[in-house]
Design brief:
The structure is a single chain. By secondary structure, this protein is mostly helical. It has one domain: MFS general substrate transporter like domains (Growth Hormone, Chain: A). Helix content is 71%, strand content 0%. α5 crosses α6. The longest helix is centred in the last third of the chain and has 43 residues.
Length: 359
């Protein structure tokens, strides 16, 4: 749709499913009268501090890499605002009688383990969705439609697997299912570590299928671990906190991975540049070959052709450094997923719960 109708068109994808959801909710939810008096009991101070703190943090994460992080006075000031208001928010939530986000739930072992795993999962989910399109676009010069065809293999297998997850949860320990899912997800990322200029769409087919299987196995079991021991009265607060931290993990993930790519590209460029210098015979031969090529294709000035040859070699070095940077970023995601898999093992086996409720 982006390729043929413009990027604005992608927002209309949600229109039809949203209408179906509204009709379904209207038909199935219990009717109850509106109680506006409950607004007086709202944790308004918590809402204000969270809104300001998260808005500032989100801006820092999205704009920090572009503005060289704390070298920018704007980013530095926003980071201070985020730290102050989020700290105030945490204090408020532990002290008010009806908090917006019940942080006391983190004292429960399974909920704390589940939240940690969920946050790392959010980092990986958003991060992997960010990395692969960026690699295909920047390195392989794929357009939006071609990138979409590659990414389709991370979604299609899940449509076949997810309906069977509740059945699996009745017969197997949910911790084991979550561990296997996270391990497969991590494996798919580690398979992308050794990237080269030859890695294009077809080479990502197997890793994407493994990633799809892993993602299908992990989301509902982790939700069951997280909310399995939560009292019904706290279910809404637990779900809200878990989802918020997973989304926050995703925001941190995309920002962190963008920084990893930038910094590691600079590192690899410096390392490669130490070998690709004019003092080496191989480099001089390559410059002569490229100069001859440019002169045979219309450049009559030898100096201009030599300049183009040097620029071309610089572009090759940058491309190789960028590829290595993406490989390092995939390694970071894989390592965090491995930590998430290990953390799941520290949870107690949750009591039998309906998967739909847990999700």
């Amino acid at each position: 749709m982006t390729e043929n109708y413009g990027w604005q068109s992608i927002f209309y994808v949600n229109a039809a499913p949203s209408l179906v959801m509204i009709v379904a909710l209207f038909a199935t939810l219990d009717r109850s009268p509106m109680r506006l008096e409950l607004l007086r009991e709202g944790d308004w101070l918590g809402i204000v501090t969270m809104a300001i703190g998260l808005s500032a943090l989100q801006t820092v994460l999205e704009e920090g890499n572009k503005d060289d992080w704390f070298a920018s006075p704007f980013i530095f000031r926003l980071a201070v605002v985020a730290a102050v208001f989020l700290s105030a928010f945490i204090v408020i939530e532990f002290t008010v009688s009806k908090p917006l986000v019940n942080l006391r739930l983190l004292r429960q072992r399974n909920f704390a383990v589940g939240v940690v795993s969920n946050t790392l999962l959010g980092f990986a989910l958003f991060g992997s969705v960010y990395l692969l399109p960026q690699y295909l676009g920047q390195v392989q010069r794929y357009n939006a439609e071609q990138i979409g065809l590659v990414l389709a293999w991370t979604g299609l297998p899940q449509l076949l697997i997810i309906p069977f997850i509740p059945l699996m949860m009745k017969h197997f320990d949910v911790r084991a299912i979550a561990f296997v899912g996270l391990a497969l997800f991590a494996l798919s990322c580690f398979m992308n570590v050794q990237l080269s200029a030859d890695n294009s769409g077809d080479e990502f087919l197997i890793p994407n299928i493994i990633r799809a299987v892993g993602q299908a196995l992990v989301i509902t079991p982790i939700s069951a671990i997280t909310t399995g021991g939560i009292a019904p009265k706290d279910a809404g607060a637990a779900s809200g906190l878990s989802n918020m931290l997973r989304n926050l993990g995703g925001a941190v993930g995309t920002a962190a991975l963008a920084t990893v790519i930038t910094k590691r590209e600079q590192y690899h460029s410096n390392v490669i540049g130490q070998s690709v210098n004019i003092g080496r015979e191989e480099v001089r031969q390559r410059i002569d070959q490229l100069s001859a090529y440019f002169m045979s294709h219309g450049d009559s000035d030898h100096a201009a052709a030599t300049g183009k040859a040097i620029v071309t070699i610089g572009q090759i070095v940058r491309k190789q450094a960028l590829i290595l940077g993406f490989g390092d970023a995939f390694a970071v995601v894989g390592a965090l997923l491995a930590l998430a898999a290990i953390s799941v093992l520290f949870a107690r086996r949750p009591s039998a719960a309906k998967p739909g409720q847990a999700h």
